[in-house]
Amino acid sequence: MRDGSVTSWCTVHRDRISRNLELTLGLVPQGRRFCAVLKADAYGHGIAQVVPLIREQGVDTVGITSNAEVRAVRDAGFKGRLIRLRTATSQEIEEALCDRVEEQVASVATARQLRALREAGKLRTGAHLALNVAGMSRDALEISTTGGQNICHEILATLGTDICGICSHFPSNDPAHLSESAARFQQQATWVFDNSDLKRNATLVHAGSSLTLISDVDVATDMYRCGAILYGILRPDLGYRPTMDLEARVVSLQDYPAGMTVGYDRAFRMERACRLACISIGYENGFRRLAYDGSVVTIRDTLAPVVGKISMNAIVADVTRIKDITVGDTVRVFGEGAGASILPELVETQFGTIMAELYTDWGRRNHRVYR
Q1: What residues are labeled active site?
Q2: 320, 322, 327, 330 alpha-carbon torsion, rounded to 10°
Q3: pTM above threshold 0.85
Q4: Residue 31 CB contacts under 8 Å (≥ 6 apart), including other chains
Q5: Residues 135-150: tens digit of each pLDDT
Q6: In terms of CATH, what superfamily is 14-237?
């Protein structure tokens, strides 16, 4: 139940997450593995709520980034494989030992730390050698250079068969770029096997995200690591549905004459008399300031234009043409409705960013209600 004092909230649809996961598992080619990416508190949806859903469908591998996410996943009862999807600091590695996290390694320093922990009997998991492929250039090792190859040789000599995986992250899912990246990754992985004692059948070679999975490119990967697709961000034509709504309330209704201005800097001037609704959401709650020009919300399943600049805790909408509107009415900022809906394509245009960022932002800034 939503607290009556809450004035902006996200409704998380657990049934849709489950259905999206079911659809996704159906897309994974036979013989490939699947990793559910729950970073950023499950893209703002709440790790504690999502973990039971993935466990129900037998997902045995989860991708995370921070130690807070690690702990939340374990606290939610997940006992399977945990892979960190970025380089960790030495302190993060130490603090996550009890949670059996498989770390990424791309430096000699990290390799030496992992080996020392293994020799001390503190480390019980393998590590994933992270390779930079086709230009992500974030935290992985570039082995197309002599210097990078020398570092890789030392990492391999230090960790040996404690390396349980070879991984990469593709910077582009454009078909031409993806094909090139996938081929280069396989070439680099082959180089690693040729220059080590690692066995191909004992090593997880993985790259690829949600976009890779739904592409038309046949990428050679042992495992897909998917986050966005679970939350309905992609491919509504395949049955995927958004998994979060963002809503607020009408807190005031006022009538103003033609010529009156609205909001900071008097940025909007009314050409006619208007009834305006003040709505209990602002940039503090993730309704971005850049969205004041041309954005809409829905009230009583009718689109209403947002006018004036966005305040910290309030926006204003022109509701002159909406009948029977009252203070306390629910305002939909994002989500499906019986009448007008505000769906990903529209909201990404309004806010000038992608749904993954919006979900993460909204879910952390607003009260969450679970259905």
Answers
A1: 39, 264
A2: -130
A3: yes
A4: none
A5: 788 999 999 999 999 9
A6: Alanine racemase (3.20.20.10)
